[in-house]
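Hi, here's the filled form for the chain we discussed.

Project: internal
Contact: R.S.
Residues: 240
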Amino acid sequence: MEWNHAAETLYGWPRGEALGKNIIDVTPATMSRDHAAEIMQTLAEGQVWSGDFPLRTRDGESFVASVTDVPIVHDGVVAGVIGVSARSAGPASLNPSLLRFGAGCDSIWPDHVELMIRYPESFIRASEPHLLQLLSLIAFRYAAALDNGSTLDILAEPAKESLLSGFGIPPGPIAHVQIGTRGERTSASLLRDEISFADPANFAAALTRVLGGWIFVERDTATHLLVPVTQVRLSVGQAG
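And the returned structure, exactly as it came back:
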């Protein structure tokens, strides 16, 4: 097991004390140990697990975290697991999350990210870390094009009825987030080569299930994420 500075801060275990311990003995809250064992079994089968999970710090403080665990598979054998954890703050407020995502992309590719939000202030059922993980996973599809100077367009607006019916999705308050570059074809994978040990389809599917939504790619030029909204406010946020 590896243990970085972020894990030390989140869990309160110094790296030297955490290394060598079973992860089930370090992070899960006592009441969740059986559930943790089930998750480890899922990972042992090579599947990605993502969801909210009760955890504890070294001092015994309990908290809920948004967790995504990705198995590292070599030659058909699970050689390890990479876990991404952050304190949960769900349900997430959609517009501020999109603004944070857009700002993060712009910090990597300055002046090459255009964000437009045309959706009322709303909330989704998942926590912000899970939404940001999925959006970041999508953005990786366009990293090569962005590195070469292309512009990434991010648009959030109400999903059109024709779009929902075309994919057999029941009508309802659903946000449509479209991400794509202008006039550039993308790579076939959702992940760049250096992290391709994870099956990208399983990775994206696990996160999409947590959001309760749907994801599809249009002609390899844009990625569409449909996210059901659980609460809607009257104010409208817009950024460009």
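Let me know if anything looks off before we file it.
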